[in-house]
Design a protein that fits this description.
This protein is an alpha+beta fold. It is built from four helices and five strands. The longest helix has 17 residues.
Length: 136
């Protein structure tokens, strides 16, 4: 890719010190090559996600972006995101304990759906998601 501005830190690890400390040496594969790994670290320096890729497997940048947006959405709205979630899909309201508790917590939200006493979702539009995470 050309003319791409990288706005986040990258680590060059010629000595493999960081790779060894973070368990990025794949046993039986190579002692001098690290697996490809992505560490999502939030502004408070907390590791929120780690995704490892073997040397033989390419990375899925669409999935990496999805993970970051899902983490930001979970933080912005105090929700959880289900598998394969994309902006605009329903999110999970955790943990309701009961539909009544979830409905009380989400008072005034017409977008709450309780599927059972322990599982409620709410709708968030793609615009709501991107407006909220752009402010964060």
């Amino acid at each position: 890719m050309k003319n791409v501005e990288v706005r986040f830190p990258l680590i060059e690890d010629i000595t493999m010190e960081v790779a060894r400390k973070y368990g990025m040496i794949q046993p039986g594969e190579s002692a001098t090559k690290a697996v490809r790994a992505v560490f999502v670290i939030d502004p408070k320096a907390i590791v929120r996600a780690i995704i490892y890729y073997p040397l033989s497997l390419g990375r899925n940048f669409d999935e990496l972006l999805r993970v970051i947006v899902a983490l930001q959405t979970a933080d912005a709205f105090s929700v959880a995101t289900p598998a394969d979630w994309r902006p605009g899909d329903p999110v999970i309201v955790p943990p309701p304990g009961s539909c009544g508790v979830a409905q009380d917590r989400m008072a005034g939200k017409d977008d709450l759906t309780c599927h059972d006493w322990f599982f409620c979702t709410r709708s968030l539009s793609e615009k709501q998601v991107f407006d909220a995470i752009s402010k964060g």
